[in-house]
Every structure is written in C-alpha cells, then in structure tokens.
Write a structure and sequence with these properties.
heterodimer; A: 250 residues; alpha/beta; Alpha-Beta Plaits; Rossmann fold; 2 domains; six-stranded mixed sheet; three-stranded antiparallel sheet; B: 499 residues; alpha+beta; Beta Polymerase, domain 2; Cytochrome-c3 Hydrogenase, chain B; four-stranded antiparallel sheet
C-alpha cells in the first residue's frame, strides 16, 4: 500500500495541461513552409518517394508526404519543416501547402456537417479500423488516450464496438483483404456518423499507392469528414484535429 | 557439398549457391543440418526462375556463427514430400511456398493459406472462406474474434474451440494486413522509396527492419558500413527495445486490470519515444536510418539528453517493476499462464524474446553478431518456464541490459560526420542474407539481383512469422479470459507477418 502511494507520488501530474498550445520536444517535422527561392524543381520533385511534391507553384501534398524530410535536407533554402503539429482539415485540397504560404492548416467551416457540433461537441466515441496500417498510427492513437495526452478529458474515446460509435477512424492504405471488414464495420455504426482518415497511408495510400494488394474503393463512396496528416499521426495532431472538427461552429 | 556457407550480411554470387535435386535438398536439410540443435531455419522461400520455381533455404548455425544456403529447382504445381512431416518448424514456410507458387505437398499436415496475397497461385481462395479446424460436438462451442479487434490494434481473426471456459484449440487466421510489400520492393525503383517501404514493414519495429534493409543494401552495393553508422544503429536498436518493452509492460498491466502499472509504464514510455523525436524528428524513428548515410548524426548533446531521459526513467521504472513483480495478485495472473515449453518452442522453431523466455537461447546479437555487439560482449537473458511471467520478466531484464549497453556505447561516441550517399548500384547476380535481433526477435531479409543489378527477389521475414503458432499453442487449456494477456505477452506483428 505504502509503496503504491509512493509510486503515485512519484508519478505526479503527467498530463499536458493545454494540448492546443504545447510545444513538442526536439525536431518534430510538422507543417512545411516553402520559400519562393528558385531551385531545380525537377530534381526536387524526383527526391520525393511518394510524389507529394508538384511544380508551378511548388507545393507539397501532406496527404501524400511521408514527412521523411529528405527534400528539406537537399534544398534547405526552399523547404523547411516547422514544429506545427496541427495538420488536419476536412477538405482533401486543404492539405496542399504551396510556396510562399505560411498559414495554419484549417477546416473549411462551410462544409462541416451541422449535426457534428450539435451531437458530438461534448462527446465523441470512435471505432478504429486498422486497414493494413503498419501499427505506427495505431500506436499513436493509443498514446492519444494515455495519461500524458489524455484525450478522454474532452469526451473523445475509442470504443470496442461500432454499435457504440459515432464514427470510424481509418488507418492504413486499405488492403483488399480488409475492404469487406471495413465496410461491415461502417455499416454497423449507427447514423449520423463521421469518417476520419488518420495518417498518410489512409489518406493517399502513401508509399503503398499503386500496390495491387489494395482496394481503396470504400473511400469513393462516402464523404470524409476529417483528414489528419502524419506518418504516423502525432497524438497532438489527432486530438487537435478532432477537437477542431467537433467544436467548430460557423 | 550441397550447401554454401556465408556470414550474416556477406554478399555472394547467386550462382555459388548449389542447386541440388529436391531429394538431396530435403535430405541435406531435414536429415542433416536440422539434426543439430544449434541450427534453425532462418528463411525458406521460393521465386520464379525460368518458368520453374527455385527454392532457397537458409539454415542459421548459431554455434558456428554462419548460415548454410542451398537451393533446388522444381516445377510449378508439382507434388513434393514436405519437410514439415519431419520437422514442424518448416510448417509455415511450406504453406507460403504452396500458396504463392502452387507447389503441393503430399504429407503436409496443415496446408492452409498463410495470408491470401494478391499474387497467390490460386485466387479462388478468399479470406472470408478460411478453412478453420472444427470439432463436431454438442459440448464444445466456438468463439470467433476479429478481424477487427476491440482495441486500437491491427486486424486478424482468432477462432477458439472451447470446453466451457477452457480453450481446447485456437487457430489464428492472418492476411488482412497484406499490402504486397515484397513486390513493391521490386517495383519502386529509388533507394528512398525502398527505405520508406522498409520503415513501413512494421511501424513498431522501424529501427529493426530499416537497419536490416540498410545493412543488406550496403552489402549488396559493396559498401562497408562505417563505425559511425554501426554505432547509431546499435544504439537505436537497443533504444527501440527499451521503448517497446516498456509499453508492453504497460499493456500487460492493462490486461490484468492493474491500473497503477498500466499508467506508470505507459507514461514512462513517452519520454523514451520522444527521445527518438529529439534525435530524428519522429517518435517511431521513421527517417532515422538510411543506407550509407544518416541525416541525423549522433552528437554529444544528444548523449546528454539521453542521460537526462534515463536519469529520470530509471528510478521510477525500478520502483514500478519491483512493485509489480512482488505483487501476489499480479503474479497469480502471470505465473503458469500461457506456457510454451522448451520442447514445443524448439519443435516449432520460435525465435527471439519469446524463445528465450522458453529456455531456448536464440539471439542474433550473440549468434550472428554484427556491428558492436561483440564489443558489448552480449549475453542473452534466458528464462525457463515459458509462461507470461517469464515473458514479462525478460522484458524487465532486457530493459536494464539495454540501458547498460547504451551507457557503454555512450562512453565512446564516434566523430559524427554527415555522409553523402555515394552508394554504387547493387552488384549483379548477387545474394545477401541479413539478420538482426529486433526487440521482438530475429528479423531476416534476403535479396537477389539479376545480371543488371536490379532486384528480382526480396524476402522479408519478421519474428512473428515463426511465433504466431507459439501463441496459438500457449493458450491451450487456459481460460479464454487469459487470452488477452497471453497475446500481449507475445505482442506479435500482424503487418510484419502479412507483408
């Protein structure tokens, strides 16, 4: 008993008081800034393993980016990754960062479904479907609920059954073998429900794009409510993204 | 001689691998090499070869620190006698060869699909129609779990046959995570693409798989890994071990409803993985390991930060493990639960931490040491009982061991230089096998190049490929309520298996 109390005492307070403003330690690669410096664009485009970089204007699609940072190492004057971990939006094109821009990635309030704020603003229960995810995003989603990040304090939780859920969070590029279970899970979730894509693999297929083992047709059928970029998604990106969505009022 | 002998990561000409008749191939392996207890199958795979199938078998000799390689060419859709009928450790390798190439086995006891790959030989088999083992009985019932599980984890299907609360049999069906990764290694041409693929084989073993790939690729290109790179990779490998083992202890506590342990180990993991972010900008160390170079040289400043993290970690971790392993209510759940005996472990050929927990001294850091492990004078930690308790205890002791190793490494930090990649293209007609002891256990990558130096075969074997069967066997005669904790004690990879 005394030992347990001692441990609790040493544990102290572990939660991050304000998850919306806390700075991440070290050299996290978050939202990039692309300068207007002229570089050999062809060479720049060629570096990217997932074809996330485009020319005219030079832009990076964070839905495809693996955040490896190789472009920034090769062209440090052109590309710089900041520590901004707020990497979510409700429009696919909102994840594209162009040269000369330095503005936060934001939601488009006009297309947030009205019932989301009304129904889920104070409580959102999510079912997670790992559809060929490599267990890195899954790890980070678990971490989002640990004593440090503690997203439970906002009423956001993962639940064990789609019947208890208000929406699904998909990780991974969606393999052919997971296409049917994913559909069944979605169908079993009661309306109204939301879909969140977490991580580069889910949003674009990432490095697996074009693999014959994938079946991403599920994504063509439904409106996606939130895209959260990352490889994997940082717990702070996830919590901020979801909070932003459910608390957004026009 | 029917085989050639190589060292870990040694490049050889693919033509120097003897091609023998299947009968001799089988005889050499099953009646010869595998009779020695120090030998185990590190990899056994096939690939298309002049409209036939070439089978390549790699038997690791742990006592003599070398690997025996031999091959045989067989017709597609031929019926062969199986190795498995004589040695169970080949069970899954032969199922994979059957699934991918249609090679049939006359006496394989369990010739079922492995992962339903997109390029399977028989596409009429679908994952929704897996042939589960069944027992006709009024007294028994079946429990199906998955593919999507209750927690935030990867998919897989578990089918239990239970007698009341007691598990008689568990069959584990995998394949849901199949992404065609081995084929992508051949299709994606740039080195950065291949490295990114290696990082995504299993996102919880980024260092393990990426450093295996990097080492293999460097040797394929005739590049000698520099001491600076060896240093960084060894350190990162041990650091990854600490991070995941700590998280696993948290998960084990969660599964026995021990809230204090769950919470304390969980938060102790946070600064450990955040350290990877301080070093390389990613909590799971994606981006840290690159063949022939590093973007994040290790500095004295990083060494000091490591000490800061572990000066805080060690006292709290020590206090918590002491409490956990002295707590009768926790021990009652861990001891004698999910036992894999030494005999079973040896017969099915399990590897890594789970093997060591069952009394099998199998550790690549000792048997096929690479880099700095010889200098560290690595001694594997081995337990005898093979239960959940042993697998938890081994994590605790390996964490302390890894901390010691990193402290030793930090005494002698090599001068950090940022390397520009100047790797040549891979040598034509080559074969390399690369073995690494990741936190889970043995990781094996094999590659073969054609006459132009292009990859024609890339084979990945995660520890989990061997060890899923151990989990299925460990839960027999246990209560079904103990399944989660048995599962956690192995913590196997779905995507590492399904590829």
């Amino acid at each position: 008993m005394l030992n347990s109390l001692k441990i609790v005492y040493h544990q102290g307070k572990q939660y991050i008081p304000d998850v919306t403003t806390v700075e991440v330690p070290g050299i996290f690669r978050g939202r990039p800034i692309i300068s207007n410096v002229k570089v050999d664009t062809e060479k720049l485009i060629e570096i990217c393993p997932t074809h996330a970089i485009n020319a005219e204007p030079v832009s990076i699609d964070l839905g495809k980016c693996t955040f490896c940072g190789e472009c920034a190492f090769a062209f440090p004057d052109k590309i710089r990754f900041t520590k901004d971990y707020k990497l979510s939006t409700n429009e696919r094109k909102g994840l594209i960062v162009s040269e000369g821009e330095d503005k936060p990635i934001d939601l488009n309030p006009d297309i947030v479904r009205k019932e989301i704020y009304r129904l889920f603003g104070g409580s959102l229960k999510l079912r997670q479907v790992s559809a060929a995810g490599d267990n890195s995003c899954e790890w980070e989603l678990n971490a989002a609920g640990n004593v440090n990040f503690d997203m439970g304090r906002f009423g956001i939780e993962f639940v064990a059954s789609p019947r208890h859920a208000d929406g699904i969070v998909i990780t991974g590029p969606i393999s052919e073998n997971m296409a049917e279970p994913l559909q069944i899970c979605y169908d079993a979730t009661p309306d109204p429900k939301i879909i969140i894509l977490a991580g580069t693999d889910a949003i674009s297929g990432g490095i697996f794009e074009g693999s014959s083992a994938l079946d991403r047709s599920f994504l063509n059928k439904y409106k996606i409510d939130l895209f959260i970029a990352g490889n994997p998604v940082h717990p702070l990106s996830f919590i901020n993204g979801v909070l932003h969505l459910i608390r957004k009022t026009k | 001689m029917n085989y050639t002998v190589v060292k870990n990561n040694q490049r050889i000409s693919v033509n120097s691998i003897p091609v023998v008749k299947y009968e001799d191939f089988m005889d050499t392996i099953v009646s010869g090499l595998m009779q020695d207890k120090n030998n185990h199958c590190a990899n056994y795979f096939g690939y298309h070869y002049e409209s036939k199938i070439k089978l390549v078998c790699c038997i690791a000799d742990d006592a003599n620190h070398c690997i025996y390689i031999l091959s045989s060419v067989v017709d597609q859709n031929i019926i062969l006698p199986s190795f498995t009928a004589h040695n169970l450790s080949f069970e899954k390798f032969e199922r994979e060869i059957h699934e991918n190439f249609g090679v049939d086995y006359s006496d394989h006891p369990w010739l079922k699909p492995v992962r339903y790959p997109f390029n399977a030989n028989d596409k009429s088999k679908t994952i929704a129609n897996y042939p589960f083992y069944q027992i006709e009985s009024e007294e028994l019932h079946e429990v199906g779990v998955g593919p999507i599980h209750a927690g935030v984890i990867e998919p897989g299907h578990f089918r239990f046959i239970c007698n009341g609360e007691q598990i008689l049999h568990l069959e584990i069906q995998l394949g849901y995570q199949h992404r065609g990764i081995e084929q992508l290694f051949l299709e994606k041409k740039s080195l950065l693409q291949k490295t990114t693929l290696a990082e995504n084989i299993a996102g919880d073993t980024v260092i393990g798989h990426t450093s295996t790939f990097a080492k293999l690729w460097e040797n394929l290109c005739g590049y000698t890994t520099t001491p600076e790179l060896e240093f960084a990779r060894t350190l990162a490998l041990e650091h990854e071990r600490i991070a995941i083992h700590t998280g696993d202890l948290s998960a084990i506590c969660t599964d026995i409803a021990y809230q204090l342990g769950s919470s304390v180990f969980g938060r102790l993991r946070t600064p450990v993985i955040n350290y990877f972010q301080q070093w390389g900008g990613n909590r799971l160390a994606k981006g840290l390991i690159r063949p022939g170079k590093t973007n994040f040289p290790f500095t004295k400043e990083l060494a000091n930060k490591w000490y800061d993290v572990f000066n805080a970690y060690e006292p709290d971790f020590t206090e918590m493990v002491k409490e956990l392993f002295d707590l009768p209510s926790a021990l009652a759940r861990l001891e004698k639960t999910g036992v894999v005996s030494t005999e079973v472990a040896e017969s099915i050929g399990i590897v890594g931490m789970a093997a060591r927990a069952s009394g099998v001294n199998r550790d690549i850091r000792l048997s096929h040491a690479d880099g700095l492990y010889e200098k560290l004078n690595h001694k594997p930690i081995v337990k005898l009982h093979g239960d959940v308790f042993s697998r938890a205890l081994i994590r605790k002791e390996e964490i302390f061991q890894s901390i010691e190793y990193i402290k030793q490494l930090l005494k002698d930090i090599p001068e950090n230089l940022k390397y520009e990649t100047n790797l040549n293209t891979p040598e034509p007609g080559s074969f390399v096998i690369s073995l690494t002891e990741g936190w889970r256990g043995e990781i094996c990558h094999c590659a073969i190049t054609d006459y132009k130096g292009e990859l024609i075969m890339y084979k990945i074997k995660d520890t989990s490929f061997h060890n899923w069967l151990a989990l299925a066997l460990s839960v027999r005669n246990n209560e079904i309520s103990d399944f989660p904790i048995c599962n956690k004690s192995f913590n196997l990879s779905y995507c590492g298996h399904d590829l």
